[in-house]
Design goal:
Distance between the termini: 51 Å
Order of helices and strands: HHEHHHEHHEHHEHHEHEEEEHEH
Keywords: Hydrolase, Lipid degradation, Lipid metabolism, Signal
Strand order of the largest sheet: 2-1-3-4-5-10
Organism: Zizania palustris
Protein name: GDSL esterase/lipase
GO biological process, one term: lipid catabolic process
InterPro entries: GDSL, GDSL_Est/Lipase, SGNH_plant_lipase-like
Number of strands: 10
Largest sheet: 6 strands, mixed
Shape: globular
CATH class: Alpha Beta
Number of domains: 1
CATH topology: Rossmann fold
């Protein structure tokens, strides 16, 4: 299947942040990870989320346009507690933002910014829980899937607007103290990889080192601007999820007769991850009080692919909800095929992780070993005090 056509047909954001970040059960246990942690006290006063579809909890449901990717139809949300219906999450239930928030002592991810705006609940929620600005299809670059999402730069501007209203409500001092202790979760970049790769394929060419260098430079410039702007507004704790192997999602595997991963796309992600690691180390060195935790989703994903059964999975290459080969020739929607045990599949649809995969990923982020989460894990970041 031609990648460019497949991406256009898919319409669902091709994002991998936190998508394949599962460590084997043995490794989690060795790292002291509880398999089913109970309710915990809040570790931070609020969580602010910026990213793409693996973190989106419904913002895209409020965007106009027929090409906007939305998870507003069955079978999305089939395992969401109590209501068992679509919530705007690209998951059969909770997504990785929900499980990260749970580990921080919240019931689930903070609500979507556009939903809160629509119901006049933005500022009370922003002050007491946080806000999710994440948008399916979003990229680090404004040009990525332009017009069908809220790009990273606009998410930062939306936060700036929110902060202004918060200051008007409770004063600058209170907001400054709140933001310094709050948790800023980032997960974005995979859509940029897909758009770049699809453009190269459309031109029937392979990206040169110079092409990749320029691409990375533009991405890192925008990423740095976002982090720096949030820092200027008072953010201090940044939880960053890097890119997983973008060449291993079911819809991409479909292009291979053997269902193999696309190594060139994976290497593109590896290159960006290296640049991101350098960026965050540099920002921490020059911005006093900035603390960060960088989750290596690529490395932890490879561990899961190497031994899916160790993490409790029976299938690591096909969609649970879909149709055709690898469950990826058709979209996840009413009437599609559903796997028998959704917790045994790494992938929920042909792009996104299952609820179980997201749960294990969040556990890894919080309690994982230093070679997968650096320079500190999410739990240590939450406890950080400048």
């Amino acid at each position: 299947m031609h990648l460019g056509k497949a991406m256009k047909k898919q319409s669902v954001a091709l994002s991998l942040v936190g998508m394949l970040i599962m460590i084997s059960i043995q490794q989690l246990v060795a790292a002291g990870v509880p398999s089913a942690p109970g309710k915990i006290a809040r570790q931070v006063p609020a969580v602010y989320v910026l990213g793409d579809s693996t973190l989106d909890v419904g913002n895209n449901n409020y965007l106009p346009g027929k090409d906007v990717p939305r998870a507003n139809k069955p079978y999305y949300g089939i395992d969401f507690p109590v209501i068992s219906k679509p919530t705007g999450r690209f998951s059969n239930g909770y997504n990785v933002a929900d499980f990260i928030a749970k580990n921080l002592g919240f019931d689930k991810s903070p609500p979507a910014y556009l939903m809160l705006k629509a119901h006049n609940r933005l500022i009370p929620t922003a002050l007491t829980m946080g806000v999710s600005y994440a948008s399916a299809g979003a990229g680090i670059l404004d040009s990525t899937n332009a017009g069908g999402n809220i790009p990273l730069s606009k998410q930062v501007r939306d936060f700036k607007s929110t902060r202004g209203e918060m200051v008007s409500k409770v004063g600058s001092g209170a907001v400054r103290r709140l933001l310094a202790k709050s948790f800023f979760l980032f997960g974005v970049g995979s859509n940029d990889m897909f758009v770049f790769s699809a453009a190269q394929q459309k031109q029937n060419r392979t990206a040169t080192p110079a092409d990749r260098k320029l691409f990375y430079s533009n991405l890192i410039s925008n990423y740095s601007a976002a982090i720096t702007e949030l820092y200027k507004m008072g953010a201090r704790k940044f939880a960053i999820i890097n890119l997983g192997p973008v060449g291993c999602v079911p819809i991409v595997r479909l292009a291979s007769a053997t269902g193999a991963c696309d190594d060139r796309m994976n290497q593109l992600a590896v290159g960006f991850d290296g640049e991101l690691k350098s960026l965050m180390a540099g920002l921490a060195a020059r911005l006093p009080g900035l603390a960060y935790s960088l989750a290596d989703s690529f490395a932890s994903t490879q561990l899961t692919f190497a031994n899916p059964a160790a993490a409790g999975f029976a299938n690591a290459d096909s969609a649970c909800c879909g149709s055709g080969r690898l469950g990826s020739e058709g979209e996840c929607r009413r009437g599609a095929s559903l796997c028998g045990d959704r917790d045994r599949y790494v992938f929920w649809d042909r792009v996104h992780p299952s609820q179980q995969a997201c749960k294990l990923g969040a556990q890894a982020y919080f309690y994982g070993p230093a070679h997968l989460i650096s320079p500190i894990n999410f739990s240590q970041l939450a406890a950080y005090s400048s």
